[in-house]
Specification:
4 helices; about 140 residues; mainly alpha; single chain
Length: about 140
């Protein structure tokens, strides 16, 4: 059940992200191509971005192979993380950087994939706090 939840959430996030970005690029909506990492960090530092991707792969591998039980929330979090990562990876391949178009005061410009990744981190932290309190 965990894998079904994770895969479904990841697929929905990646498809929504790419659909919205396609519309943004083709409809003359203001956007920018972010060649950096998350929220524009490390622009031009390809090796740092590569290391971050490999670290993420190792962490996901740990989750799949060494954890015994997963909660529903952890399945959603992993789906958000994978879906956001896939969406941004497709952008890097198609555009040479990530299409960022959501511009809110006091925040860097971001996109749906970034929001999904941020939500995933929040859910993982929340899940860890709840598990700690239940021990």
């Amino acid at each position: 059940m965990f894998l079904i939840i994770t895969f479904t959430v990841a697929l929905v996030v990646a498809v929504m992200d790419q659909t919205i970005k396609h519309w943004v690029v083709t409809a003359n909506v203001t956007y920018r191509i972010n060649t950096g990492g998350f929220l524009g960090l490390f622009a031009g530092a390809v090796w740092i971005q590569g290391m971050a991707h490999w670290l993420l792969v190792v962490m996901l591998g740990y989750l799949f192979f060494f954890q015994k039980k997963y909660s529903f929330v952890e399945g959603i979090a992993l789906g958000l993380l994978v879906g956001g990562g896939v969406g941004n990876s497709i952008d890097r391949w198609r555009y040479g950087g990530v299409v960022d178009f959501i511009n809110l005061p006091l925040l860097p410009t971001f996109n749906l994939a970034d929001a999904a990744i941020t939500a995933a981190v929040g859910l993982v932290i929340l899940s860890a706090i709840v598990k700690q309190e239940n021990v």
